[in-house]
Amino acid sequence: MGSIQKKQVGEEPLGREQLGTKTDVILDAEAIEVRNLSERNKRLVKGGIAQFREATGDLAKFALDHWSVADGHRTPVDEDVDVLVVGCGFGGILAATRLHEAEITDIRMVDKASDFGGVWYWNRYPGLYCDTESYIYLPLLEETDYVPSAKYVPGYEIQAQALRIAEKEKLRDHAFFQTEVNSITWDDKSSRWTCKTNRGDVCRARFVISAIGILHKLHLPGITGIEHFKGHSFHTSRWDYKYTGGDRYGGVLEKLKGKRVGLIGTGASTIQVLPHLALSGAETYIFQRTPSAVDERVNPQTDETWFKSLPSGWQDERADNFDKIFYGGEESVDMVDDGWTRHIYALHKQKDNLPYAERLKHADNIQMELIRQRTKNIVKKSETAEALQAWYGRACKRPCFHGAYLEAFNCPNVHLVDTNGKGVSTITRKGVVVGDRNFDLDCIIYATGFDWGNDYSARANMEITGRNGLTMSEKWVAGPSTFQGMIGHDFPNLLLFTHLQSSTSPNYTHLLSERAKHAAYIVSETIKRGANSVEPTQKAEDAWVEKLENIAAQYLDFFKLCTPGYLNQEGQLSKFNLRNASIGLSAPQWNDMAAAWRKQGDMEGLELDGQAAVQQKAT
Ligand code: NDP
Asked: Pairing relation of β-strands 431-434 and 426-427?
């Protein structure tokens, strides 16, 4: 393998200017490809998408709600509503807001949590931030008149915005918390969904909006022995402050001092948690299967004068600008100008004749090389710095940004246990085993992420039964099947907010906002046209699925060469399961498609009460 050389990399840890725009790094692209492939091959044996363990049965304790203040007991209700919204995260909140705008107010909202916020309700681990810019990530800033404290804000500030919108829209009156929807079943005669909850409620709804989120069902590593560990253990999304001390506002985890703590996983959650464990004085063992690529993040406080001078409509404009640049569109200005956009934006300034894809690949290689160099510059022990090198294409795994993660490895109480791609072997009564090494621990923290699988009913934890007893799992047996990624034949009046067969974005709340607009339009148009049911024709759905499969096929070669992760079905994405791909239209493409479709006004592809909506309008 050839060597990777640089003409010039500064002695200082690389700063923002360098990471975004430097092009004087000389790369041996062939050597990088060989190394990327060999690292990927090591990890193919991870066991694919089915490797993880659910937090059920003996492991159910991992999913308990630490934040609820009451047991949630109440008298069950039996009711009829216009719209049932499943989920009180930003998806559900935005759905309700858009429904209100369409003057649809007979809404029931349900969530297993005991308050609004979704992932920002559950995740309260120390150091939690969103590294998508707050000015575009926090929805409805103009409507709520809220000024975020900084460019990137902590989790509690994000949840506060969810609560602020919920108060403004008076959503609390509509919400059942600590309540799980167990099943929804379509009844053709009444054109209603019957929803049953774990609290004994029965709710008949004309429409259901399923805004369950994509990261709500935590999972544990696919290893044996988790249930046998005699020390303390929890998942990052259920941080146990009673055990660790400290709080979500930055208080030091003082109860961990002197304890031996294991942290399994090195994704975006760990990147933020580790510096806090380092500070606590715990002997921290961090078990790594695949290193994250950790770029820097500059986080200035908000300049209120600037913020208040922004013209009406600025937030959507800024969010659109971000998505367009992220997806390679040419924009005259990079409004957000951060680690998500800067190097892509810079591509358009380069004047050469190479095709865009080639330029992007080259820019990504440079970016990854600079990140590897940054790691070496910061981490003092060369063996540790080497083990932390990320070898894959930048789009293979979720990029991470943090100013203190790499520094944490210089603390004498932080120990990287690199598993050379193999992962933790097993958990025993006493601790963690990696190969032939045993690590006795007082506490194990699982930073092992969330179910990203495509069995929608399993992920939603609810049985969804459409027309003629057809379940969603049966319909999706060969992978998701939808029209516009939102609605399916034989499942009338059910609108899904998901990234599948549609689009995704690092700015997920903007995506939710666009889905909410679209769902509210479909619901209100169906009602306005005096129809009881709306669903796609089978033909329209099949055409959509085929279109999205064709798009995914274009990225197959790239994702096949990626290290396994949730973006490529843990290495199992192939031409036979393209429907499961997390890749589809770009966010701007989906948003433009949906806006144009609404503007056209004939609900093309949908049928109302079994008749094509287009024809109905014509008659
Ligand atoms: P991830 O799914 O990103 O990471 C899970 C980690 O667990 C991976 O490092 C994985 O390794 C590791 N793992 C799984 N099984 C084993 C095993 N047997 N042995 C050792 N390691 C194992 O979860 P996160 O909670 O970190 O993040 C989930 C998502 O949440 C992110 O991708 C992001 O979208 C979002 N998020 C965003 C944040 C932000 O805005 N800053 C912060 C936190 C989360 P491997 O990579 O090899 O599979």
From this structure: antiparallel
Higher pLDDT, 22 or 4: 22
Question: Residues lining ligand 1, CB < 6 A?
Answer: 43, 129-131, 215, 221, 223, 236, 264-270, 272, 287, 289-290, 398, 423-424, 447-450, 565
* Total domains, the chain: 1
> Across-strand partners of 219?
54
Which three-class secondary structure state does DSSP give residue 497? coil
Output the six-digit token pair for 241: 């402050």
Q: Whose CA is nearest to atom 3 of ligand 1?
A: 267
- Kindly give, in sequence order, each residue whose CB lies less than 8 Å from that of residue 562, ignoring residues fewer than 6 positions away: 40, 392, 393, 395, 396, 397, 568, 571
**pTM of this prediction?**
0.94
Distance of CA 311 from the midpoint of ligand 1 (Å): 38
Contact assessment for residue 183 and residue 195, using Cβ atoms and an 8 Å cutoff: yes
| 3-class DSSP assignment, residue 285 | strand
Whether 492 is in a domain gets the answer yes
Q: What is the pLDDT of residue 125?
A: 98
* Residue 547 is assigned to a structural domain of this protein: yes
* Residue 576: alpha-carbon gap to chain centroid: 25
Tell which atom from ligand 1 comes closest to the C-alpha of 401.
41
Tens digit of each residue's pLDDT (9 = 90 or more) over 115-139: 999 999 999 999 999 999 999 999 9
Q: What is the pLDDT of residues 451-495, one digit of tens each?
A: 987 788 888 899 999 999 999 999 999 999 999 999 999 999 999
In a domain, 435, yes or no: no
Domain that holds residue 127: 78-217+452-615
CATH number at residue 536: 3.50.50.60
Ligand 1 binding pocket mutation candidate from 432, 448, 450, 505 (most atoms within 8 A of CB): 448
Does the residue 122 lie in any domain? yes
d(CA 356, CA 183): 47
